[in-house]
Write a structure and sequence with these properties.
Blueprint (H helix, E strand, L loop, with lengths): L3 E6 L7 H9 L6 E7 L6 H6 L7 E4 L5 H10 L5 E4 L5 E2 L3 H11 L5 E9 L5 E5 L6 H5 L10 E4 H5 L12 H11 L4 E12 L5 H4 L3 H16 L5 H17 L1 H10 L9
Parallel strand pairs: 1-2, 1-4, 2-3, 6-9
Antiparallel strand pairs: 4-8, 5-9, 6-7, 6-8
Length: 269
Amino acid sequence: MLKVSIVTISFNQVEFVGRTIQSVLNQDYPNIEYIVMDPGSTDGSRDVIKGYESNIAHIVFEPDEGPADGLNKGFSIATGEIFGFLNSDDILYPGAVSAAVRFFSNHPKIDVVSGHAKVIGPDDRVLRRAYSDRMSVFRFVYSSVALIQPSTFFRRSAFNRTKGFNISNRAIWDGELFFDMAKANCKFGRSEEIWSGFRLHRQSITISGRTAEERHEVIEKRYAQMLGRPRNRWDRVVESILRVWRHLANPRDTMERILRGPVYGRTLD
């Protein structure tokens, strides 16, 4: 039976971290190694985490250099064959881990698999559904591929083909890792199941972490990293075309956007 290692990075999420931990501990898959990293919460999160100590394989309370560094440290002690990571405000739905392992078992050539998610508010109310795209390096460079991070699992061997998470990347460390895996010729798959709850709240990056100017800066840096040069006007044309293509290629996500609004940039009023 494949061992699955899941890493949660937690920092001052006392309102949600208990629900995150429970969602992992309540999975029906019997071979999960759960690792929780907290670099210095001061809001009571550590007391919540300690309350589950007997059921968590590793709890690490030590400083880090940001979320990416915390994840690298977590995976450095992971012993599983399948990896996943869950932020301390997101949740896994029942059966998610079993479904991911089953997918890998049925598709031995796949290195990374993404499922879909429900976007939830602070009270677990479902705001909309979000659907992962199929991976394409070309379209990913032009911001036309979205992989739902808490619904994504990957083989240890895929992680080892990369240098891990880029600790200097404090905005899209997950996306950069997936891009590095794709560049390393990892094979990506997609499950049609909903595996996670991707939470929006006033302190989350999606809602409040970036003004339009800050988001623009992050996007420009992303292009420079991936293209090896600054973005030019022709890149913007290509991006616009590919985004239209994405809306046509992922009609379920497009319909959710039309009916219930976007995932990013929304409010919770």
